[in-house]
Amino acid sequence: MKKLLILVVLLVVSACGIKPTGVVPAGPAPTLRNPGVSGRGADVILYFVIGGRVAPVSRSTGTVGVENALSLLLAGPTPDEADDGYGTDLPRRSGPIVLSPGSPPAITVPFPLKPISGAGINQLVCTAFAALAAQGGYSTDGVISLSGTDVRLPYQACQAF
Amino acid sequence: MIRQVRSWLAGLRPRLVAAFAVIMILGATAAAGASYVSARNAILKGIQDQTMLKLRDQIVAYLPTVSLPPSQATLDAFASALKPSGALVVYHDMYSSSGMPPDQVPADLRQAVATSTYTQFQRVDAHGFPQFYVGIPVQTSSGTTTGLEVYAGASLDQQQAAIDELARQAWLVSALALPFAVGVALLAARQVLRPVRALNTAADQLGRGRLDVRLRVKGADELAQLVTTFNHTAAELERTVGTLRAMEADARRFVADVSHELRTPLAAMNAVTDVLDEDAGQLPADTAVAARLVSAETKRLTRLVQDLIEISRFDAGRAELRREALDVAAAVTDSLAARGWEIGSENAAVVADLPAGITAALDRRRLDIVVANLVGNALRHGAPPVEVVLRAEGGDVVLTVTDHGPGIADEVLPRVFDRFAKADTARARSEGSGLGLSIARENARLHGGDIVAANTGTGARFELRLPRAAGIGEAR
Which of B29, B123, B136 sits opposite A29 (nearest CB)? Predict the structure, then answer.
């Protein structure tokens, strides 16, 4: 009886508060599909808007250049992707997209940037970064220069949010 | 007061209260504790999962823009992209310049993350403040580590506060259960103890001779069964005792009736034997002896019948007490003189110490019977001198009659006042009726007094103690 009581008291006391834990595994790590490491031809990564966030979508078209990737981005999500909930904040405009290598690299798009939302700018920037990374040849230092028909924006970084 | 508390504590009530309180507290604590533990785990799991999933989603979103090996600028850009989580990005020995300081990450976690391809988390206690750390390694598509690791931390202070509040409420609930438990226990105890107390009272009354006591049966539980049994027992007892009393009364009435019926023929026989006694001298010798024997036995029978009538009056409760103020010494002296017992003289059988001036309200006739019986008994069974001493003690008069005989045998002493108690078992017949001491004691008790017998070592002593005035101790 006494032992039982002590056990109960110990249980009650020890169950209180937040106890430190050891290191606990929780799910697999995210995978980096990068030709620079894996050596295989990676897919093209496009960023679309889903649930207010900018999220990557991969298309198995083989590696393409930055200009082509951005053209694919401007063409909008495919019907399948749209069914999955992906959308775009960018206008469906076509035209020449120019990439000027440099530090940072500069990208010029054939439409005004002012009406485009922050998420839309992020789509452009992140897609460009992904394409640059996929090519491997470019050394990115985290920012690019983005210009439209109306304005040249300050240096932009891909925001993961 | 302390004894009362102790007897209360020894009762059924505190045991019931304690048992109820323990059960209630255990139940409440178990329930509150279980809900506390599950709520705490839910809170912790919520914040941990939220932190990990958010960070992982951010990393997944950002990863396609990263190429290996990363430059310091790439790490910084990665870290600033993960700014909402305050994350630290590590690539082997390179650390992003923003985010939390690298030495803040627990070494265990660093070790585990560096060698696995699984997200890892750890909860640590940083000087009393619980902290949550998550480490997410980045793996290649072939399942090997890339060396790229992201760490983020979150303080669990708010969760700690919420959980402490939960614990406080759990304790409070347990504590609130206590008075409730005590109340319920007292109620239950009352339910059980009320009939028990009633039974106790009734049994006590039954023990004091109130055989008509009965209890009302309420409900059909075990206590009600007990009450029913008690009632049946009491009823059966009353019936049996009633029967016995009726039989005893019948027996006594029979003795009284027989005694009365014997009186008339005895009166006639006494008249005849008186004549025979007078004429005994003129009868032939044998006939004279027979006549005297018949005369003596007739007188003895007459005394026995008188005693029987006397004692049946006591039995029937018809004995009357006629108190009058009298000088006890004078009354005792008269009583002794009437029996022809000389006192005070040289070699006298009776030695008396009767100081005058002790007055009491007594029944003269009954006092006479008592004195005659005690002294007569002492003269018959003991040996002279018989000492008769009168004293006043407080509100009582005490008359002791002491003889110098062999005393009373130990086995006879307890029942020396019983009817027909034989002082000497070897002697079937004694001169007395065998009722003398019985009648003496009945008379003493009628006065509210008593007689006790004892051995002095040199004889027997009877001590008569009577209250000097009619008082509350008066019997019947």
Answer: B136
Rounded CA Rg of chain B: 53
Sign of torsion, CA B324 B330 B336 B338?
A: negative
Alpha-carbon B361 to chain mean position: 44
Nearest to B336 by CA among B313, B319, B353: B353
Cα three-residue angle B244-B249-B252, rounded to 5 degrees = 125
- Residues making up chain A, counted from first to last: 161
Q: Which amino acid is it at B154?
A: A
Tell me, what's the ipTM?
0.79
> pLDDT tens digits for B272-294?
888 888 888 888 888 888 888 88
Residue-averaged pLDDT of chain A: 76
The C-alpha atoms of residue B131 and residue B111 are separated, in whole angstroms, by 18
Tell me, yes or no, if the pTM score tops 0.90. Answer: no
Tens-place pLDDT, residues B47-63: 888 888 888 888 888 87
Between residues B423 and B104, the one the model is more confident about? B104
In this predicted structure, the answer to whether residue B247 has a pLDDT above a threshold of 90 is yes
Q: pLDDT-based confidence at B236, cuts 50/70/90?
A: very high
Residues of A in contact with B151 (CB under 8 A): none
Selection from A128, A142, A127 nearest residue B98 by Cα: A142
Of B65, B130, B138, the CB nearest to A130: B65
C-alpha–C-alpha distance, residues B315 and A103, integer Å: 138
What's the Cα-to-Cα distance from B282 to each of A57, B273, B278, rounded to whole Å?
A: 165, 14, 9
* Residues in A touching B74 (Cβ below 8 Å): 140-142
Higher-pLDDT residue of B91, A20: B91
Give the chain B residue nearest A28 (alpha carbons).
B118
Sign of CA dihedral A109, A115, A120, A125: positive
B105 → chain A, closest CA residue: A23
Region at B311 (left for phi over 0; alpha for psi -120 to 50; beta for the rest): alpha
Enumerate the residues of chain B whose CB falls inside 8 A of the CB of residue A55: 57, 60-61
B20: which 2 tokens? 């109820």
Q: How many Å from the N-terminal Cα to the C-terminal Cα in chain A?
A: 57
Contacts by residues A128-131 (CB-CB < 8 Å, ≥ 24 positions apart): A128/A66, A128/A69, A128/A70, A128/A99, A129/A158, A129/B64, A129/B65, A130/A44, A130/A45, A130/A46, A130/A47, A130/A56, A130/A69, A130/B64, A130/B65, A131/A44, A131/A45, A131/A64, A131/A65, A131/A66, A131/A69, A131/A70
